[in-house]
Amino acid sequence: MDRTPRWPDRLVKALAVMGAGFGTYLVVDQGFLTVGRRLADGDSLLTALLDFVSFLSILTNTALVAIYLWSLSGARVLRWNNHPSYQAFMGSMIVMVGVSYHVLLAPSGGLDGTMSFADIGLHYVTPVMYLVWWWLRSHEDQPRYGPIHRLMILPLAYAIWLLARGALTGRYPYPFIDVGVLGYSGVLPLMIGLLLSQWALTLLMVAIRRRP
After folding, report:
1. What b/e readout covers 3-39, taking b as 16+ CB neighbours within 10 angstroms?
2. Which residue has the higher pLDDT, 12 or 157?
């Protein structure tokens, strides 16, 4: 029997390798840049690291790297990385990262007024790479709707953490959730809208994937 993988299998593996490598490079590069700036401004290392991991693009892209690596390794630990519902959920997460950046931050040139290579990679390139990989990869099991509702606790917890940390420190990773400037009346409706949009997008992605 011919055990040579079909070309789609090779392509999926190649995309996973590229996605893991490129995503790791972007996260590490952005980490040195962001943490270095915070330390130069006089922040402690802990504060600088907390600021760095407050960015949804960093958390999401790190999760995508983990998905790629586990798909390549076939590891039995942390098996949720290979769960089709989780992979669909993370697809909607990275899409929301890209769309939110494009709509809310890109018009002003990003957080620092200029769009860096890492900004373009983390918000535009990695979403496309992941969606192509996700679509081409075959699953023995299809994603299900039930787990999606439970997975939504992750972005909800992230939103609560941002607001709680911001209330204690006055620091927010994004200007459009800065309660000190916009107030809760300006921030909460946007956060709720983003959460509902991601929920709907994830359900749509599951429906598309499950379509015969």
Report:
1. eeeeeeeeebbebbeebbebbeebbeebbeebbeebe
2. 157
102 alpha-carbon distance from chain centroid: 14
Helix (H, G, I), strand (E, B) or coil at 1: coil
CA 14-17-19 angle, to 5 degrees, is 105
Using a cut of 0.85, tell me whether the model's pTM lies above it: yes
pLDDT at residue 2 is higher than 80: no
The answer to whether 35 and 18 have CB atoms below 8 angstroms apart is: no
Whole-number Å distance between alpha carbons of 172 and 211: 40
How do the domains of the chain map onto residue ranges? 7-210
d(CA 124, CA 120) in angstroms, rounded, equals 5
First and final CA of the chain: distance in angstroms? 29
